[in-house]
Amino acid sequence: MATKEIIRVRYGETDQMGHAYYANYLFWFEQARGAWCRERGFTYKSMEEEGFFLPVVEVHIRYKGEILYDDEIEVRLWVTEIKRASLRFQYEVRRVGEDRILTEGFTWHVVMGKHRRAITIPERLRELCETDQQGTAEP
Predict the structure, then answer these.
(1) Domain spans of the chain?
(2) Where are the alpha helices (DSSP H) in 14-112?
(3) pLDDT one-digit tens code per residue, 113-133
(4) Considering Cα of 104, then 78, then 117, then 42, what sign does the dihedral take?
């Protein structure tokens, strides 16, 4: 099942023309990933305290429509692929109350241990991801 995170675009997140600055989408994706973790009973902080890290190793974003200052947007994300030591999150960004996808993208993450090397995804995290992967982008 997709996680949904509602964000209001702040003035400082826009360019001189009032459009959302392209790099801020990465912050919004990260905020939605934090919500994904919290919905599953943990946080990035608690995961790191256990010695696991989830760095981004690849990003793709496709901008399909305008997002402007003070727009209320919904970032939806879900897990689309799981490998031994990595996973992929898929994202869709819409204006709240609208169906049109304004932005879509994905991030790949490698699970690393305390020695900063890739490790097999811990079973608990794998189970959460596999359950999520069975869902869809729609609520």
Answers:
(1) 3-133
(2) 24-39, 44-49
(3) 999 899 999 888 888 787 766
(4) positive
